[in-house]
Amino acid sequence: MLTKEDTNYLTQTGPGTPMGNLFRRYWQPALLSQEIPAPDSAPVRVKILGENLVAIRATDGTTALIQERCPHRGASLFFGRNEEQGIRCVYHGWKFGTDGQCVDMPNEPAESDFFQKVKAVVYPTKEMGGIVWAYLGDAEHQPELPKFEWAQVPESHRHMTKVTLDSNYLQSVEGDIDSSHTAFLHGQVGKNDLEVSSKFFDSNKALRYLWSRDKAPKFFVVETPHGLTIGARRDGGRDHYYWRITQWVIPSVSMIPGEVGGTQRCNFRVPMGDTDHQFYRIDYIPQRPLTPEERYDFEHGTIHPELKPGTSRPVRDLSNDFLIDRALQKSGTYSGIRGIVEQDYAVTSSMGLISDRSTEQLGTSDMGVIRARRVMMRLAKHLESGGEIDAHMDGEIFFMRSPALLVDKDVPFDVGARRAMDAEEEWSRDVEWATVMPVLEDENVPGVNA
Amino acid sequence: MLTKEDTNYLTQTGPGTPMGNLFRRYWQPALLSQEIPAPDSAPVRVKILGENLVAIRATDGTTALIQERCPHRGASLFFGRNEEQGIRCVYHGWKFGTDGQCVDMPNEPAESDFFQKVKAVVYPTKEMGGIVWAYLGDAEHQPELPKFEWAQVPESHRHMTKVTLDSNYLQSVEGDIDSSHTAFLHGQVGKNDLEVSSKFFDSNKALRYLWSRDKAPKFFVVETPHGLTIGARRDGGRDHYYWRITQWVIPSVSMIPGEVGGTQRCNFRVPMGDTDHQFYRIDYIPQRPLTPEERYDFEHGTIHPELKPGTSRPVRDLSNDFLIDRALQKSGTYSGIRGIVEQDYAVTSSMGLISDRSTEQLGTSDMGVIRARRVMMRLAKHLESGGEIDAHMDGEIFFMRSPALLVDKDVPFDVGARRAMDAEEEWSRDVEWATVMPVLEDENVPGVNA
Amino acid sequence: MLTKEDTNYLTQTGPGTPMGNLFRRYWQPALLSQEIPAPDSAPVRVKILGENLVAIRATDGTTALIQERCPHRGASLFFGRNEEQGIRCVYHGWKFGTDGQCVDMPNEPAESDFFQKVKAVVYPTKEMGGIVWAYLGDAEHQPELPKFEWAQVPESHRHMTKVTLDSNYLQSVEGDIDSSHTAFLHGQVGKNDLEVSSKFFDSNKALRYLWSRDKAPKFFVVETPHGLTIGARRDGGRDHYYWRITQWVIPSVSMIPGEVGGTQRCNFRVPMGDTDHQFYRIDYIPQRPLTPEERYDFEHGTIHPELKPGTSRPVRDLSNDFLIDRALQKSGTYSGIRGIVEQDYAVTSSMGLISDRSTEQLGTSDMGVIRARRVMMRLAKHLESGGEIDAHMDGEIFFMRSPALLVDKDVPFDVGARRAMDAEEEWSRDVEWATVMPVLEDENVPGVNA
Where is each Rieske domain found (chains A, B, C) (predicted)? Predict the structure, then answer.
């Protein structure tokens, strides 16, 4: 439960808000690199943390993120001319360099030096992993780029979708953190869970068996420099627990359980205004390129959302009741809604643009949600009172994974999973298989040993 | 004329408002029974008196009306699974029985009894006359179901349309009460009124003649246990008056003048928010089933509104200027708009979402409107000050009609019409005919005696 | 730069606002005469200065502008019956004469004189130049109709388009005043400016050469009885300056530089609410009818906006990014947007519905904008403090032009251009040609002497 005041505190990220100030300490994805594909290509509108900006790729190929309103009289620089290392307002031809400095005022007398006094707001940008990253905070607090593994692997190894969603960022982040919903919202009915799962889980059939036989895992949360490491514990048979780990990264990123040796997953939620956000969904395989079949499946399957052609808007949304198929809901998928992202979006957007938390009733499975809110509020208040934060200055701390794996019952999960969470490590699936096989044999799981 | 404060008082019906509290003493139509046609069929959203709810038909065939937001984290139960005598949120599988009690929390540990502490708001529902009725008030004040005659007759005897309208309920109710608009808004131009009326009036031609020759009747209003009985008096020739009676039923129902021995009419206006409402239009013949021709005419004629297929929204509305036909308005119908309901909706919605009454100028023909407002305000204030109301606890008081008939000049209309207003009475049209015939002969009405 | 308070002061024109009171001292275009083409034709909604009105043409051919809400209960008179020298509400048949007096209440008793006490607001209207003009102020301050030249010439001599735009009127007016944007927003790239201009400028090729070779003219502003005369000064070669004159007419009209002996131009901006306005664009040739080719070009070219069929809404607007053609923007037109009006609308609407002036940075080229704002505020405050204004009472002061011409360097521009600004004068293009020819010869302008 949150008071309305605390909900406002957590959900408002515009200029000058405490939570906005916290967000402004972190690099944020501003747009896909491919949205500004070539030098001097068309400007693109970017709304982020309540600020209206325009992104360009300059003549030298670098990127710039500039205030949308021309400093002169406020015409949108979206309609501007991106040319010769700067953007020119079409209203009176004023030109701004990639640092925001006005460098030309062709409608003012040639002898005027007024242009030197005019400067537009420009935020630092860097490109990494197919993303143009932006830093909207003070120069003195600018950290290193967060070295997420997916941003380090070649483009061939990952698939990324950007989608614009109509709700405050926080209720989506809360859904990402809360792994207990998976077996329900994304589950199946009327079928053996082992059989119906997507083919991308095939290699981990044994672990999935452990998952599906316990829908009420016990949650453990550990604070880390990057945020929280959340472990969902299930019985692993004999002397192991089966742990599914979610990494929540301050302020609005989460890595949901990936497969050891297989696909890893990351969700970015970037506030636009207070009632919408950009969602970046990234799937990648660290060790190898995606096969054409895997990529086809990401583009046409249920893991990445289906978008209206030419837009970042999902085909299924509240306006069409997510095209829910009530017959399918009876006997096929639990939700009757097609698409993992759409299923998440259905429940989170149905809470309202900014969900009222004042009447919620949280259980033990909401421990990750509760702890993440507390960390966010504590950090924002810490900044408000003049304190500093620095754990995130080092980009290396983001180089990690969120595995699902077996750990010896005697060992704390974050200790036992330490190697598997390290993105540098290669980890053998064979170890897992050898460990879980006796459990399966004990329980006579049909089809597993076939 | 109403001050803005009084207009707010009368038009706001959300939780905690005085007028909302008055509405909550009465059973309200929540939706059509046929919208939740079968056990475990799909949930349907219902918005009523500012509250967002979901209606289901449970496994045993009974109905339930439950808060839309899941008590857990606020996901919409509209997307829920209606199964085994309850509704299950698709987010985490929490299940609520038809009394609102949480009966299952599959994502919490099996030993947890947290589910016992969680209860959703559920309002009592009953079915009668093809309607699921809801009672949103305190249990101690729950009255009997209102025994409207249309809800007692077999389904074969009535035709009912539910339509969603974009305006506050009150301006629509005021239109229903105010019968003096009928000869204008719903009238004809350039033709003899006797000839052009709908064929459903054919059997009462003589009375219709009396109606059409006097467009400025004198209004008389009598307070009753159910609300108001409003009589519009016209000359009936020789020693009779011709009375057309409207029953206004607290808080937002009206029965408009029906034909003795023929079709009776009832209008329900149920507030959704403060700027929209559900309108239920019911026509019925107490004594017999509608003929196929009559039913066809209700479905394709001008009495019931024409809806956008698959919705409860009218085809003609303010967004398309009600498809007004200016040529028709010149020489055919008075309004140039097709459909009785649409004609009403055109004028009431054109007043704005909540009509400003501070500049209105009311005449003697608005007496019903004035009195109904006073009754509403008096009752709501009575409740506010701790008073009680109980006239409506007995459902039998709603078993009545609103006839149009001749009454001896010496007899008060509500006395003279007493038998005709009694829904139990059968009344002979022959009596009326014998009474009015001399008038017609005196006046040499063409075609009446042919 | 304007504070938010001053911006509100300048931009709000509803009833009771200071700026609204200033506007109410002037006749305003209410709609095109052709929108109410014939006696007793259909009523048309008119929103002006925050007031919702209905325009009719009465049986005798005169026009009337009446409040949209029926004084009785508020139904819209748009749905009313325009008949026999008045408008009748379709709700209860109340009829209002063209002076607003209620003349019939057919639903009230015949003996009632209540109708005499009911009067609707009606504003004086007059027709001139294809426009129905309205005066919304006090009778005692009613001026003569403004005798704009375009409204005096026969209909054959002018082309007029009415378009509804979504922004406050002021930012559009500011664009009209500010002629320094023309060479940019409406300019060309990658071509010789002389070659690419519209054929309507052909006859003034020489002057256009002077215009295009100096994109940073110096501005001079002179206060006049009608508002401001703004001169943009460019070098005219040898002993002349080349002046392009804009007439700004209080409160929201501008005449942009026309051709001596050719097309003259006038822009009217009439506030509807505070976030939209009607724009009337008028082009005319004082001396002769437009040729069929000229008229075709106005209807299908880039000077007048392209409207969605059957509406006054532009095809290109913010919702479709003005269909900007980025390739064309690279090498064809400066903006990549088709249409002069649409180019203006793109920059002005992109500033927001009411542009925030608190961060603007104005240069010397914004002198006209600054001065016009000052005049508006001064006059509105003058009225607020009980003062009077009367320069505009005489309609003759609006009979003028805004020429572009050569003036001897020793002569103040408003003195030298006096004859050319006089709409009664005929002015010979030959004079101009003789004056500018030596300049062209000096500079060896290719193609000019061919």
Answer: 27-134
